[in-house]
Write a structure and sequence with these properties.
Layout: E1 3-7, E2 10-13, E3 18-25, E4 34-39, E5 46-51, E6 58-60, E7 68-73, E8 78-83, E9 92-99, E10 113-116, E11 120-125
Parallel strand pairs: 2-11
Antiparallel strand pairs: 1-3, 3-8, 4-5, 4-9, 5-6, 7-8, 9-10, 9-11
Length: 126
Amino acid sequence: QVQLVESGGGLVQAGGSLRLSCAASGRTASDYVLGWFRQAPGKEREFVAAISRSGGYTHYADSVKGRFTISRDNAKNTGYLQMNRLKPEDTAVYYCATGTRYANDVAATVAQYDTWGQGTQVTVSS
């Protein structure tokens, strides 16, 4: 059974940085696309970033492009989301997810992911 565990969330001031980690077990790293999503109170879960199975392709939401960087270490079966220049509007619960067998290399929709972590809270104060 695949399990994902996020860590690294917390409280940070606007302009600060955080690095989220996503440790996966039960699935070979090179078999899945890895994505990060976030959900703020009262809002739908939204796409943040995705990275292909090999790590060679990445895709970002416009709202985080240039500030966030997604990466992965397949040897460690772990993914990362480096978040710089954080803004109050980045406040949300952040989830990592692994793509379905048929997900494209940089899947950006919830429907293309079938396993989710428990989420980690990121709060950015102004």
